[in-house]
């Protein structure tokens, strides 16, 4: 069960971070602070979301074996 909770938290962190980074990218493009080639759901956004998902997975409670 703790593995399921950790996976669930990681998935939620990934989705929420990706949504937030896409919204931030859209605002930056519209305000002309970022190049229009940046695009939404690009490598930068997915990479950032993966980093946050990994951090959430590592901080989640895990069952101790041993």
How would you characterize this protein structure?
The protein is mainly alpha-helical and 66 residues long. It has helices spanning 2-30, 43-59. It has one domain (2-59). It starts with a helix and ends in a 7-residue tail after the last helix.
Series of secondary-structure elements, N-terminal to C-terminal: HH
Number of domains: 1
Which whole number gives the mean pLDDT? 87
Strand content: under 5%
Record keyword descriptors for this entry.
single chain; 66 residues; mainly alpha
Spell out the blueprint of helices and strands:
Blueprint lengths: L1 H29 L12 H17 L7
Helix pairs in contact: 1-2
Brief characterization of the structure:
This protein is mainly α.
